[in-house]
């Protein structure tokens, strides 16, 4: 069973570095594990809450994680009229995403099993797993604080291709400053040979 009925309240509304996106903090956890991210109404099909959000016609991205929902609109100006209806929709339509089976498996992190000094000798597949695990622990929490997320799409020849989620998806800072910060963190802590590029279509 993927969803359960649970009433949520928006306890705080925060702007994000992306002026077209707001982060809505909730009174309790909305998802047992991981994230739900949608970039259009087609991706939202099958999720009643996401379908309702995209039915506004101006929602361009939706990120559901931990205790918040991040909503991005086509333009910042739309918020003046829509912030109250968005809050009402969250409180009336949001459901708890029960990924309990996935959460209960709780695999041991690959970072506990390898020595990062050996990173350059790993295959691209293992490197991608290492970077993904490192982002889980050190980068994604920082992006989540601003209502955003990041997915590792591919790694080849030390080039990491990423796709942004939520508030990061249409934020100009994500393509410049944030991208360089992510690259700098990975180069300093994993390998100086790494470079990070945005998978086209995510911005």
The shape is elongated
CATH topology of the largest domain: Ribosomal Protein S8, Chain: A, domain 1
Distance between the termini: 33 Å
The CATH architecture of the largest domain is 2-Layer Sandwich
| Strand composition percent | 25-35%
How many discrete domains? Answer: 2
Q: What summary fits the major beta sheet?
A: 5 strands, antiparallel
Report the count of strand segments. 10
In spatial order, strands of the major sheet run 2-3-6-5-4
Q: CATH-wise, what's the superfamily of the largest domain?
A: Scaffold protein Nfu/NifU, N-terminal domain
Structural class of the secondary structure composition?
Answer: alpha+beta
Oligomer: single chain
SSE pattern, N- to C-terminal: EEEEHEEHEHHHEEHE
Task: Give the mean pLDDT.
Answer: 84
The portion of residues assigned to helices is 25-40%
Q: What is the CATH domain class of the largest domain?
A: Alpha Beta
Q: What is the tally of helical segments?
A: 6
Gyration radius (Cα, Å) is 18 Å
- Unreliable stretches (pLDDT < 50, length at least 5) are 100-105
């Amino acid at each position: 069973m993927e969803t359960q009925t649970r009433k949520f309240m928006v306890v705080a509304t925060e702007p994000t570095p992306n002026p077209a996106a707001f982060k809505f903090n909730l009174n309790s956890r909305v998802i047992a594990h991981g994230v739900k991210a949608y970039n259009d109404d087609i991706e939202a099909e099958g999720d009643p809450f996401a379908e309702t959000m995209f039915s506004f016609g101006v929602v361009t991205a939706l990120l559901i994680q931990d205790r918040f929902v991040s909503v991005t609109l086509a333009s910042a100006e739309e918020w003046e009229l829509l912030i109250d209806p968005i809050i009402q929709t969250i409180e009336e339509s949001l459901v708890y995403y029960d990924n309990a089976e996935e959460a209960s498996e709780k695999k041991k992190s690959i970072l506990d099993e390898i020595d990062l000094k050996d990173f350059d000798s790993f295959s691209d597949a293992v490197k991608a797993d290492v970077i993904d695990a490192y982002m889980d622990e050190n980068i994604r929490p920082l992006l989540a604080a601003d209502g955003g997320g990041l997915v590792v799409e591919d790694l080849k020849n030390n080039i990491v291709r990423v796709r942004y989620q939520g508030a990061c998806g249409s934020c100009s800072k994500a393509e410049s400053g944030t991208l360089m910060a992510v690259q700098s963190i990975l180069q300093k802590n994993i390998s100086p040979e790494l470079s990070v590029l945005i998978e086209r279509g995510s911005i």
